[in-house]
Amino acid sequence: MRVDAHTLAVEQLELGQHAFAYYDDDEVRWEVAAAFTGRGCALGHKVIIVPDPAVSRQEAWQRITAWSGVAEQALTAGQVTCASMREIIYPDTRFSAARQLVRLREATEGARREGYAGLRLFIDMRWVHDLGLGTEQMLAWEASADELFATAQFGAVCSYDRRAFEPEVVEAMRTGHPVALLGRPGDLRAYRSDEGCHLIGDADIATRPSFRAALSAALDAAATGSALIDLSRLCFLSAGCAADLLRLGAASGCQQVVVRCSAVQARMLRRLGVGSLSWLVLEYPADAR
Amino acid sequence: MTSTRTLLDRTFGLPDLPALRAALGDCAIASELPRQRGEEFVLAAYELLAHAIEHGGGGQVRVHRAGGQLRCQVRDCGPALPAGTMNGCGLGVARALADQLDITRHCDGTTTTMAMNIPVAQARR
After folding, report:
1. A9, A22, A60, A216: which sits with the fewest CB atoms below 10 Å from its CB?
2. What is the DSSP letter of A135?
């Protein structure tokens, strides 16, 4: 799917954010859920998972715990729970967006009373078929949920099976959510804007060819001018990929390469010798200098 | 007596790297390493994993908390490299980031152990 200014990797998702996710494969479907759960457990959040109604809870547990050792401990401690949408709306049997908001607000307050920093909710949106919801009702629910995120005590991922929803519905959901997640943890995607080249996800041994290709295209496009390489939405940059950036930048005809990055990335690039390169400028948060 | 708490113990290959990185990040957060130090722990540990994949196709990773440190031990089954040859860009970065890095060669592979100190206030918990 398309990536743009509101695309993030799931590992970077925080409380207060409402994200769209997608899958079209029964293996991949668990990866975003598991990464979201593992990170939430480590951060001291309560996590509720609402899986596809056709999937057993046992399978959901197994898939989630296979990802994170922290999540495995949290499952036994009750920090992570599994629920169906039918249970969440009980004793009602019909879905109501207003009632759902009340229930989720209560669940967030309950998590806070239990001592958790907040509540994370992962929903496989296949539940809308189980409860017979139409597309318009689903869109209305997604739009009405904004107020839940205002306090930064609640965060949610709504995951869409592309095999179960029309392409235009999935795209409307992607653009309608404040955040759209990459397809799976470990992915690397890039897009170009008027500003420069933006990279999202993980730049590592597996994605190194894509990383190099995106950099080469951006440097070629800048010709002898200035190029901006935005690494700030990478959740991982390996030393090998960082070294590639320096090699490709040096070999390009660019007069200047501006690298927008995190403090940790800046420290690694300095260790690789950025300080002696007059054509490269690091741009990173001021409080980390 | 120093207690040891195992946080992660897995075999791995190339396809496991995204899950392992997420799990390493979770271990750093759960051990209360400061945020930037936690990111550096993931980076240094990843470089050990990548080295094991490049030289042995994979291996076994164990993360544990002991003696005020968060430690990551990676064992690969690749051919033992001669002393002085394990100085690639990735291992150089890992060495620079870690508070401690030890490499032990065996007849059937190499074990690399990297440790980061947990700040005293957190280590007492």
Report:
1. A216
2. H
What is the number of domains present in chain A?
Answer: 2
Q: Which residue of A has its CA nearest to B64?
A: A69
Question: Is A161 in contact with A24 (CB distance < 8 Å)?
Answer: yes
Q: Among partner residues B8, B26, B93, which is closest to A41 by beta-carbon distance?
A: B26
Fold of B4-123: Heat Shock Protein 90 (3.30.565)
Expressed as residue numbers, the domain containing A244 is 188-283
C-alpha count within 13 angstroms, C-beta hemisphere, residue A185: 30
Residue A75 falls inside a structural domain: yes
Chain B residues closer than 8 Å to A262 by CB: 39
Q: What is the pLDDT of residues A194-205, one digit of tens each?
A: 999 999 999 999
Within B1-125, where are the H helices? Answer: 17-30, 35-56, 89-97, 120-123
Candidates B8, B11, B17, B53, partner chain A, best to mutate (most A CBs within 10 A): B17
How big is chain A by its Cα radius of gyration, in Å? 21
A129 CB-contact burial (10 Å; exposed 0-12 / middle 13-18 / buried 19+): middle
Task: Give yes or no: residues A256 and A116 share one domain.
Answer: no
Contact B22 A185 (CB under 8 A): yes
Out of B22, B46, B92, closest to residue A238 by CB: B46
Kindly report, residue by residue over A150-164, the tens digit of the pLDDT. 989 999 999 999 999
Q: Are residues A165 and A51 in the same domain?
A: yes
Q: What is d(CA A40, CA A71) in angstroms, rounded to the nearest whole number?
A: 9
Q: What is the mean pLDDT of chain A?
A: 91
- Residue B18 to residue A31, Cβ atoms within 8 A: yes
Give me the total of CB pairs closer than 8 Å, taking one residue from chain A and one from chain B.
Answer: 100
Q: Are residues A44 and A154 both part of a single domain? A: yes
Domain membership of residue A1 (yes or no) is no
- Tell me which of A130, A148, A181 is where a domain ends: A181
What pLDDT, on a 0 to 100 scale, did the predictor assign at position B82?
55
Closest residue in B to A34 (Cα) is B19
Q: Which residues pair with A257 in a beta bridge?
A: A227, A280
- CATH number for the domain that contains residue A29: 3.40.50.300
Distance (Å) from the alpha carbon of B98 to chain A's nearest alpha carbon: 13
- DSSP, res A148: G
Are A40 and A114 found together in one domain? yes
Write down the pLDDT at residue B83: 52
